[in-house]
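To whoever picks this up:

The parser on our side crashed when reading a file containing two proteins. I've narrowed it down to the boundary between the first structure block and the second sequence. Both blocks are reproduced below exactly, byte for byte. First block:
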Amino acid sequence: MKQASSRQGGMPANWLGGLYRAGLVALLLFGMQGCATYSSSFGVIENNLITKQYDVALKNLDKQKDDKKEHVLYLLNKGMIERMKRDYSASNASFEAAKKEMDSLYAASVSENALSVMVNDSTVSYSGDSYERIMLHLYMALNYLELNDPGSARVEVLQIDEDMREFAEKSADKKKIEDAFALYLGGMIFEELGENSDAMISYRNAYNVYKKYQSDYGMAMPNELKSDLLRMAKRNGLNDEYRRYKAEFGMDVPAGNGADQGSLVFIFNNGLAPIKREKAINSMDPKSGTMVRIALPYYESRKNAAMAARVTVNSLQRNTELVENIDAVAKKNLDIHMPAIIARSVARMVVKAAANNRAKELARNNNNKDDQLLGMFGALALQVATVVTERADTRSWLTLPGNIQMASMMLAPGSYSMKVEVLGPGMQVLAAQDYPNIVVRKGHMTFVTQHYVTN
């Protein structure tokens, strides 16, 4: 026996109530999400970093720790701020927690993916972009190096290689994602551990990727790497390769690179990574008269007055060189993912338009005027919500530097005082910092890193 409608000649009242509630729920979702994107909520913390108020920055960041969908970003930013204040053990604890959560989220849940089809990409828990996962391992390795634990740093660079292979397996063209500085750092770590053959392989791989960087990012190969290639080729007895590099680079192993010396490696983390913004297009679907919206992310570079850093130890002086352009890498990575982002946005537009059209049709076909009015209100609320909830996913690791620079110098074993001057346009000194009691050991590398965030 068929169930009777509660209103003769009209649609079932429970369905109309459902449509009404659907519109209200959709509007509520928008209200909960708000107009602000993730990137727009970071201004206060950025100001804390400019003024080096790292403890205050951590307190402000703690306001985000209960957001489950952004918890990975909370941990990544927490770890980076902790390393800015030189608490490397705490930094790696936060990074390790982020790594575990990223691994568990890498296979996204079915329920979250279904919600992203109806609302937007930011409804899915953030698991980190591919370049961010590489940077996570890289900064854990740098933390271990500053903690004088090159063995643990070695584990991190090996995990970078595993991640790059995994990303390649899941990419459409099966091309291995490669990061030049990660490979270069890996070579330095292998050399520090006395694994000269592996060091040579990593330096060689870094050389090949930096050659690609020249065309992809307009970035020159670091002179430091050229010196390391020449030195390591000579040390490993690779005479033909040594002569080839010597001819290509127009240089030889710098004087003073004796086996009885050590090296001081200074890594300058300059500025902040680009910030994701949203660009949106609103238009009317001519077939249904329904408003549709597509919102896509794009990266906006953050202004940075610092050009380089000048490192002075006794009478020796070096300017840092660019070894990683995170700003350019992030933008390139987004370009690679953009076809998939656009496809998801178009799919949502189709699904939302179909839902809106169905809601209008059912409301119009109702014979009861009260129910028709109720249904039309629900349909209108649903249409408004489907438009305003279409937001770009602007989440990213915002405490990464805009670029990484490096300078190194060979020194006799001993204790040194190092001065670092941050240079702006025209070699103007923007800031200076002294590092006393830097110990250099025979046959080893001493790593010192600095973060600088300019207004």
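<<boundary where parser fails>>
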Amino acid sequence: MQIASLSEIKKELKEKTNHELTELVLKLTKHKVENKELLAYVLFESADENHFISKIESEIDLQFAHVNIKSNYIINKNIRKIQRYIVKQIRFSKQKETEIALRIHFCKNLVDIQSKYDINNTRHQMLIRQIELIRKALKLVHEDLQFDHELELTELLEQVAH
């Protein structure tokens, strides 16, 4: 079975009535949880990106607070789960400012975990990768935002150095 191209789907959607479009969207949301999450973001969260960021940051804090500390393996596994959650939220938003804010917040929590428990090479590599991704995204935002986030990144790097 060959999948239709995006342009073909777009043409077909233009021919549908509002009621048919609503039914299609509801069908998509019932099919997969991620579709429902994306639709919820688009409908309810995208209008106020700052509120969305603060909501996700508080969820990140909550997830870090519940990290299981039985072993380094379990800690790293929990952190990777948090990281996947953040990547999904960044994909929903598609805004570089949101990406930078969420990644910096993740890194701050990761540094706190590093300071509380044994220094672990896996977590250190995660931190380095996140910093690289932040720097990459920083190049694509406005200069004023670059400066603000660069200050946050510098503070973060100072914490890592200690």
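After patching the parser it read the second block fine. Residues 48-161 form one domain. Residues 128 and 138 are 15 Å apart (CA to CA).
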